[in-house]
Design goal:
Length: 166
Amino acid sequence: MRALATPSLLAATVATGLMAGLFAAFSYAVMPGLRRSDDRTFVTAMQQINKAILNGWFMTCFSGAIAAIGLAAAALWTRGDRRAFAFVVAALVLYLAMFVITAAVNVPLNDKLAAAGRPDRIRDIASVRQQFEPGWVAWNIVRAVVSTGAFGCLAWALVLHGRSSH
């Protein structure tokens, strides 16, 4: 278990950083760009993004980060590296908050958007967009902030772990 401390902490940091980057990119580039589009373009784009994102790369990072953070915490605890362990636990709490937000808010909104049907057949597409966009965008910003916090905690844990390994 002790030998897994560094590789699991590094894997957790990379996976969490990739997720934080994804949510941040949606916050400062994708959604502001889509905000400028018409309703049909917006709904079509989001429906297609929501389909495309469910792939092995996304799922490996999204779910794998939890496993890697948990493994890093166990390995650091076993090693007696309490300072790094504390930051990994903080990262786990933040990452789990992002996971819960995703499952409780963003995924149900994605599902509701998909259930609206093909954009060319939606009667009141402006209403569909209005029911989706404000909440999804706001909660995505929260996901970006908490996952970035988790990433920062893991980066600092790597620094502390590196100092204690000498």
